[in-house]
Design a protein that fits this description.
The chain is mostly beta strands. The chain is built from 1 helix and 5 strands, in the order ββββαβ. Strand 1 and strand 2 form a beta hairpin. The model has no long low-confidence stretch (mean pLDDT 93). It binds zinc ion.
């Protein structure tokens, strides 16, 4: 089992080598906080963060 890391672009947590959301491969372990969206269509926070896919996200990445 790999360690989860956060995508620098869309902040999605993943264990893959390529981000399933933005298809980039730039990740960081340097992040602040995490938030889990179960229904992005109903979440105001998800809307503000421009999140369109359910999942776990870092609140801030460096
Ligand atoms: Zn991404």
């Amino acid at each position: 089992m790999g360690k989860k890391k956060a995508c620098r672009t869309c902040k999605l947590f993943t264990e893959e080598d390529i981000c399933p959301l933005c298809k980039k491969s730039s990740f960081t372990n340097n992040f602040q906080g995490r938030i889990h969206f179960l229904d992005v269509k109903k979440s105001l926070v998800a809307h503000e963060m421009d999140v369109t896919l359910n999942g776990e996200y870092a609140i801030k990445v460096r």
